[in-house]
Amino acid sequence: MTSELKLIGIGAGNPEWVTVAAARAIGELDVLFVVIKEKDLDEFVEVRRQIVSEHRSTPLRTVELHDPPRPWRSTPDYPAAVRTWRAQRLQQWSDAVASELGEGQVGGFLVWGDPSLYESTLAIVKELVAVCSRDIRIQVIPGISSVLALAAAHQIPLNRQGRAVVIEPARLLAPGMPEGTDDVVAMLDGHQTFAHIDPTGLDIYWGAYLGTGDEILISGDLESVREEILRVRAEAAHRKGWIFDTYLLRRR
């Protein structure tokens, strides 16, 4: 019998952003695989529990997967560190699926935001299925990403007529805005790259804790507001102990 793995996008933080398709998929699960990251936060665990409880009438068996350490934060060889981490994840998840997902059963992962955008779950699950000795099909249920949540919160279109939008890791912004590109969404900016590039002619639309009760939004001329963003960001991270943020840089 064919088993199934559902990758369920649950949105960027608001439990009400779970789609009808995602809710239905949660109700069909026999087992939920939960990735517990380093220093996993009670808030994230509680949101998962809330989402599951709201969309199921029966208890759901869960299997915890404790994420391998992420050494690339300090390693000089970033690509090699990522490859090692993904290989460790692949082995751990393969073992868990082999032992915990029965023939004909449906397993699932709840994925923050969308499984297709800056999220490694889909790539690793596809590798897992490719090397698995039995038949497993994959279903991907999209979710509301932080990128779309950011645009909606600021009430702006993500793209402008006739112009492209680039979504990239913030480290690629270190030299400045890409040539020929007017709109860039920066992801994974642990070093506040926006504060170190030439701000001439740029606006920023910044958001943290998007979709939650703690949501913070700041926008305006980059040169005028970047110090405010740095201050607010540091205060929020200190207060909560963590921060998820992203932003759009836009040429005027």
Notes on the structure:
The chain has 252 residues and is of the alpha/beta class. The chain folds into 2 domains: 3-141, Cobalt-precorrin-4 Transmethylase, domain 1 (3-Layer(aba) Sandwich); 146-251, Tetrapyrrole methylase, C-terminal domain (Methyltransferase, Cobalt-precorrin-4 Transmethylase, Domain 2). The chain is built from 6 helices and 10 strands. It has helices spanning 20-28, 42-54, 78-100, 121-131, 146-154, 222-240; strands spanning 3-9, 31-36, 61-66, 106-111, 136-141, 165-169, 183-187, 202-208, 216-221, 245-251. Helix 3 (78-100) packs across helix 4.
What's the structural blueprint in terms of helices and strands?
Layout: E1 3-9, H1 20-28, E2 31-36, H2 42-54, E3 61-66, H3 78-100, E4 106-111, H4 121-131, E5 136-141, H5 146-154, E6 165-169, E7 183-187, E8 202-208, E9 216-221, H6 222-240, E10 245-251
Parallel strand pairs: 1-4, 1-5, 2-3, 2-4, 6-7
Antiparallel strand pairs: 7-10, 8-9, 8-10
Helix pairs in contact: 3-4
Keywords: Cobalamin biosynthesis, Methyltransferase, S-adenosyl-L-methionine, Transferase
Domain Tetrapyrrole methylase: 6-223
Protein name: Precorrin-6A synthase (Deacetylating)
